[in-house]
Predict the 3D structure of the following.
Amino acid sequence: MWKYMLYRYGYFESAKRFCELIKIMLDEITLSSTINDNNKVHNDLLNKITEETERSLIIDRCQDIPLWGKTET
């Protein structure tokens, strides 16, 4: 993405746009954190998703999964 921005806008304009993109991402993280703290329904949903993800990772850890599409013979 950075190389494309350099090609399209030049160094100075790319740096400004990239900084703005980072600022937007950080603002979204802050906003989602605020929503999580203030909204019980959202907080409960997030906790449930986290628990389900942890449970599925524990289950997956017990299974041998071959790498790169190899099949066991």
About this structure: The chain has three helices and no strands. The chain has one domain: 2-61. The first helix runs from residue 2 to 9.
